[in-house]
Design a protein that fits this description.
The complex is a heterodimer of chains A (594) and B (381). By secondary structure, chain A is of the alpha/beta class. In chain A, 35% of the residues lie in helices and 25% in strands. Chain A has an 8-stranded mixed sheet, with helices on both faces. In chain A, strands 3-2-1-6-12 form a 5-stranded mixed sheet, with helices on both faces. In chain A, strand 1 and strand 2 form a beta hairpin. In chain A, helix 4 runs parallel beside helix 5. The longest helix of chain A has 25 residues. Chain A is globular. Chain A starts with 7 loop residues before the first strand and ends with a helix. Helix content of chain B is 11%, strand content 36%. In chain B, a hairpin with a 5-residue loop joins strand 9 and strand 10. Chain B has a 16-stranded mixed sheet that branches. In chain B, strands 5-10-9-6 form a 4-stranded antiparallel sheet. Chain B has a 3-stranded antiparallel sheet with strand order 2-4-11, with no helix packed on it. Among the domains of chain B are: 71 residues, OB fold (Dihydrolipoamide Acetyltransferase, E2P) (Beta Barrel); 132 residues, 3-Layer(bba) Sandwich (Glucose Oxidase, domain 1); 56 residues, Roll (SH3 type barrels). Chains A and B meet through strand 3, helix 1, helix 3, helix 4 and helix 9 of A and strand 5, strand 10 and helix 4 of B.
Chain lengths: 594, 381
């Protein structure tokens, strides 16, 4: 990675519905994001050429910024005055992104490692096949044949260890003779990252029907996981095969001056960069129309999951299918019958690009968002367990005991929660985003909360691979909107009893207060103002440092402010609809959210 | 946006319709260019590879994988009959002999000396693709399928379930705001494609299935009815493979919504004609909407039939402009139809507090409303 002397950078993210372009310019000695344009993505008929949408998004940037970027359909480079740019880069999740199937000998070991390698590379994992997954051989073969992934990652066996299970999986794959999702003229790529002693056998078994790539074993020994080479291979294949087959991508790859990166991989990059730079624990979420990605970095360990069918437009009805109507209705603070809610959700599913025009409709969408975020985070916690991203030393007993290892996500040690995606980045009021994030993720102790201002994390993620300085500066100054800090009580067993007192000092002015259990309070602290707060819990209540332990910290303000949340974890809501409505409305009033 | 467009549903009295009929795997095309085909005629066929069965021979015979070939009585590629011997052990004492027989009729696909596994494959399963619509073959794609052309009334629905069916079109209601009730359904509706008005409830839908109606065209129905009829909540709108004994197409949306006047008038006009419908819907990248196709049979059969340019139903999206007819597709004016009166450039504040790009709509009674651009769809001709 080098910090080149670019003065004008143009970056796009080709999403499944919209292509978003941002312009970054060097102003004096610092990089700033200056203009933004968007256009419908054109991967599908009638255009079937992703570059049409990209060029349209450029045109919008040209219109708004006054900078001439295109000469016909060619990018003008380098930048001179108000003409041209120095660097063009892009990410992509259009056309369904990168869709993979993974296979591993043992479900909780090599198959899990393979799943993490694929997710970390930015893929949607369509299925995980394992020797011990409970399915009969013909069921596995049928499943492999029907799925039509972009590629398969096959793993299994430690180096020098067992060979039969992984060869058996290879035999199933060969019998299924799977075809790739895009294009019928090329062989499906299969990455083998298992026992090195089986490489020749695997090749013999598969190479007639598939295009086999060999890389290092993701589980060379029981105690060690090595995901990086497999991830690298996945991303190379993504460019060579998947992107090359998608309409217009060959042209796009020529236009771009750095490899096109899957959108989630780019967001993962930026999350890891922040965590490393600030030496903090992070959870990030990107809630889109079709999928919700969750990222976490705890003690330097990176994990990513994708909930492929949890999203706010195409997948909105699947939130209902997964969580049930009661869990959605509990967040709706007004009278509405179930039939009406159901029909509204389905109407959004069949016309996914519509937007709420009425407050009531917005509140229903925010109810759905809370559940999508909550479910996606649950899935993330279940997968973010135990193993290191690149290599981890562990003893044999731990290795055999993986299913029992607790999640790495420790909410009491979470420093920063970052939200991105339309419903969070473009909520009419930032207070709404803050409420949704707190209600869905339920942070404990002291947690800073931020949102991606206009959805530019993918762009900055890919930019960080070619110009780290520019990516870091824009991220700090223009991307992250600091909403504020949330200080939460973890344990509430009884409502309406004295819970915490606090003493807040903002610019020399003291403010004191107290909360009963079940209450929540918002105190405005302007952005860039540093305040000092001491919160003292009553005996038995926990603010993250242990029961009854006070905290005294310095916090920064934000566009929303400081939230002290004594509602307890997990948030308890009863089955009485009227009581829930009163509760939600009282919380909403605190935030003046609608 | 530099290049905004709002996809709409097509409702056309008479257009040229092109349908590709493609096999899922390489196979054989059975018709020729310029052949006249009827909806039920098979135009291409192939064979899906048979189901694979795995047999762990080494466990059954108590041998090591490396010696499997010594015990196999069949080789890779051999055909086998059900209960035919595949392998047997060779003990000194014959009564200790262990055997392994084939559970299926099929072929030996692989014999693995590493895993000791033998994979048998059942006979290929024939798969046929029919024409689905009456028309004429205008193109054949070698080993893959054909393109069929017809002149037809063509209507897209907004959502459907169930696959392709063909039957006589029957209008079950007097006007588009009426709703057909279960008491009105009798034997005369059997095998028909029935237009049931603005709404259909669960009981009427069940009766329709019992009576043997092939397809329902309706303004809307409740999601609760959909869930009851399927037995589960649809999460993602990818449909067409449901086996519920009927195909349903909703033209407007979920809830009780009268069928758009133009749609209803066209259906009434073509009542009694042979109609092909398909409930398959895919609302993801590459949107697929359910379709109602009512061919003009006389024109297909006419000798002077010309292959002319026209609307390709798989490829048509345009922008919107002042004067275009549009439909509002979200509350508070969901379902209302009007024409575009103005297209203001600057975003405007709406009730939610968002600033959105909007347009002004003029309704037939002369009133106007401001609606987010994202919340309308063009009514395509």
């Amino acid at each position: 990675m080098t910090d080149n002397n670019h003065t004008v950078i143009l970056a796009t993210d080709c999403g499944s519905t919209t292509t978003k372009a941002i312009l970054i310019e060097k102003k004096g000695n610092e990089y700033r994001q200056t203009f933004r344009g968007e256009a419908p993505t054109t991967v599908e008929a009638p255009f079937e050429d992703v570059t049409r949408g990209v060029l349209n998004s450029f045109s919008e940037v040209e219109e708004i910024s006054g900078r001439k970027i295109l000469d016909g359909e060619n990018i003008i480079t380098p930048a001179k005055g108000d003409t041209g740019i120095d660097l063009y880069i892009s990410t992509s999740s259009a056309g369904g992104g990168l869709q993979m199937m993974v296979a591993g000998a043992v479900q909780s070991m090599s198959a899990l490692s393979a799943q993490r390698a694929a997710l970390g590379a930015g893929a949607i994992v369509m299925d995980v096949i394992a020797s011990n997954d409970g399915r009969l051989p013909h069921e596995k073969i049928d499943r492999i044949r029907r799925l039509r992934p972009d590629m398969i990652l096959l793993s299994g066996g430690t180096d020098g260890g067992s060979i039969t299970h992984v060869v058996e999986l290879a035999e199933y794959i060969a019998a299924a003779n799977p075809t790739p999702r895009l294009g019928i003229s090329y062989k499906l790529p299969i990455i083998f990252a298992g026992n090195k002693d089986t490489r020749d056998t695997i090749k013999t078994c598969l190479e007639e029907k598939c295009s086999v790539r060999i890389t290092e074993n993701i589980r060379p020994t029981l105690e060690r996981e090595n995901l990086f080479p497999a991830r690298q291979e996945i991303q190379d294949l993504f460019l060579e095969h998947v992107m090359a087959q998608a309409p217009g991508y060959k042209k796009l790859m020529k236009m771009a001056q750095a490899p096109i990166m899957p959108t989630p991989a780019a967001v993962g990059n930026i999350m890891q960069t922040i965590a490393k730079k600030e030496n903090i624990n992070i959870v990030g979420v990107d809630i889109g129309g079709a999928t919700t990605d969750v990222f976490s970095v705890f003690d330097g360990e990176f994990n990513r999951t994708v909930s492929a069918n949890l999203g706010m437009s195409y997948s909105v009805s699947n939130i209902l299918a997964e969580t049930g109507i009661e869990n959605i209705e509990r967040w709706i603070p007004f009278d509405i019958d179930e039939t009406d809610v159901r029909n509204r959700i389905k109407n959004k599913m069949i016309r996914p690009t519509t937007v709420p025009q009425l407050i009531e409709e917005l509140k229903i969408e925010h109810a759905l968002a809370r559940e999508a975020l909550r479910l996606a985070f649950e899935q993330h916690k279940a997968l973010a367990i135990g193993l290191k991203g690149v290599q981890k030393e562990r003893d044999i007993s731990e290795a055999f005991d993986q299913n029992d290892i607790d999640t790495l996500i420790d909410m009491k040690r979470l420093d920063l929660l970052v939200g991105s995606g339309g419903v969070l980045s473009h909520a009419p009021k930032r207070e709404q985003s803050m409420m949704m994030l707190i209600d869905a993720f339920q942070p404990e102790g002291v947690t800073r909360i931020a949102v991606d201002s206009i959805f530019m994390m993918p762009h900055l993620g890919v930019l960080s691979t070619v110009n780290e300085k520019a990516a870091a500066e824009v991220f700090e100054k223009d991307c992250l909107i600091n909403l504020g800090t949330c200080i939460s009580v973890s344990n509430i067993s009884k409502l309406n009893v004295d819970c915490v007192t606090f003493n807040l000092n903002i610019n020399g002015t003291n403010k004191e207060g107290f909360l009963k259990s079940g209450e929540i309070v918002l105190i405005e602290i302007p952005t860039d103002v540093e305040a000092e707060i001491e919160v003292i819990p009553k005996r038995g209540f926990d603010l993250g440092n242990g029961k009854g332990q006070a905290i005294k910290i310095k916090i920064k303000g934000g566009v929303v402010g400081l939230v002290i949340d004594a509602r307890g974890r997990p948030l308890k809501m009863g089955k009485d609809k009227e009581a829930n409505k009163r509760l939600i409305n009282s919380w909403t009033d605190v935030f003046k959210a609608y | 946006m530099a290049h905004a467009y709002t996809p709409g549903l097509k409702v056309s009295e008479k257009v040229r319709v092109l349908k590709k009929r493609i096999l899922p795997l390489i196979g054989k095309v059975l018709v020729n260019k310029n052949d006249v085909v009827s909806s039920d005629m098979v135009v291409a066929e192939t064979a899906l590879p048979g189901k694979v069965h795995s047999i762990n021979i080494i466990n059954k015979l108590g041998i090591s994988p490396g010696r499997i070939n010594e015990y196999m009585l069949k080789k890779q590629g051999d055909t086998v009959k059900k209960n035919e011997l595949l392998a047997e052990s060779k003990p000194w004492l014959k009564f200790l002999r262990a055997t392994c027989v084939s559970p299926i009729d099929g072929t030996v696909e692989t014999i693995s000396s590493i895993t000791g596994q033998v994979l048998l494959r059942e006979k290929p399963k024939p798969v046929q693709v029919n024409a689905h619509i009456d028309g004429r073959v205008v193109d054949t794609i070698e080993n893959e399928g054909v393109t069929i052309e017809t002149t037809a009334t063509y209507i897209q629905g907004i959502f459907g379930i169930g696959g392709e069916v063909t039957g006589e079109l029957k209008i079950g209601v007097k006007n588009q705001s009426d709703c057909l009730s279960q008491n009105e359904l009798d034997e005369s509706f059997r095998d028909k494609i029935v237009v049931t008005g603005a709404f259909i409830d669960y009981e009427t839908l069940k009766k329709a299935i019992d009576v043997g109606i092939k397809g329902i065209i309706v303004g809307g129905f409740d999601d609760g009815t959909l869930k009851r009829i399927l037995g589960y909540d649809i999460g993602v709108a990818i449909t067409g493979t449901e086996s519920i004994g009927i195909t349903i197409i909703i033209t407007e949306g979920f809830g009780k919504i009268e069928i758009a006047q133009k749609t209803f008038d066209l259906l009434k006009l073509r009542s009694g004609e042979k109609t092909s419908i398909n409930g398959a819907t895919q609302i993801r990248a590459g949107v697929v909407r359910p379709e109602i196709i009512i061919p003009y049979l006389d024109e297909i059969k006419a000798d002077n039939h010309l292959i002319s340019d026209g609307i390709n139903t798989e490829n048509n999206q345009t922008g919107i402009k002042i004067g275009d007819p549009i439909r509002i597709i979200r509350n508070p004016l969901f379902g209302k139809i009007g024409v575009v009166n103005a297209l203001p450039t600057d975003p405007q504040l709406v009730e939610t507090g968002s600033k959105l790009r909007v347009l002004e709509i003029k309704f037939p009674d002369g009133s106007v409303s401001i609606v987010p651009r994202a919340n309308i769809e063009a009514i395509e001709q």
